[in-house]
Amino acid sequence: MLKMFVKEGWKDQSRDILQATFRLAGKGQLVAKYDGVVVGFVTLYNFSETNSFLNYLIVKPEHRHKGFGSAMLRKAHQLAEARTISFIATLPAVPLYERHGYVKGKFGFASYSMIMKHIPVSPGAGSKYEIKASRDVDWNQLVNYDTSYHVLSREHVLKTFCSIKGSTTKVILERGKIVGYGTIRPVLAGYLIAPLYADNTEACMELLRSLVGVAPSNSPVVLVIPNVSQAGKILLDANKNDVRVLWEGVNMSSKDTPDIPKMNNVLAILSPAICFL
User: Fold this and answer.
1) What span, in angstroms and rounded, lies between the C-alpha atoms of 144 and 216?
2) Cα separation, 56 vs 277, whole angstroms
3) For the chain, percent helix, then strand, then coil, each to nearest 5?
4) Is residue 162's pLDDT more than 50?
5) Which of 76, 85, 175, 220 is the most exposed place for a label (fewest CB within 10 A)?
6) Same domain for 183 and 86?
């Protein structure tokens, strides 16, 4: 499966990330075959009794527009049962999902690769905050902090992604209270930061500086940034000469969903759930 991503130029993935996604999906791993050869795949993760997430819908270029994507979507609908299916679609794939009844949300996203030469950290921020490894903070408090962004608890997802080989998860605190956390891990294109949440831009930048310090100097760093992220806008402007856009997308779902709180405080999301056909 990884070869499909590499062939498409999507090198912000790794074998370990894909394997983690497949573990979460379980029986929701679907493949499309033509003459016995895999030409596409998708994963569906039934996250709760009410919500499912669609991940990595892809069809090989030479087999697109032949109904494979639609067939996998129909099967995913069956597996989701009555759950709401959510994901982020790349812009070229949006018409396909709309034909299947999905509706666009109000958030746009883009994946950026950059050599992060400039991180706009506030003077004195280093003494204001404390940064710890995730193993050194209370796990339940970290899960509760993550839930404040997503409404539903994602404890199983966090455990799976934080344990991916090579991952480093750090937590930023102010006077002993968690005000943000983030994870960095190696991928084919360099390093991926996913997620990075913080209560304010100052904490975002201080945590980002600490995470980037894990990667070798001048390594490309990939982030999937919401278009409403204040910290994201500042970071992109500071590094505008060293940024490359990998893809742009929008959140979509099979039903209307509640607004995601605090999205403007998100510098990088956890799982882009890339869908491209």
Assistant:
1) 32
2) 10
3) 35, 35, 30
4) yes
5) 175
6) no
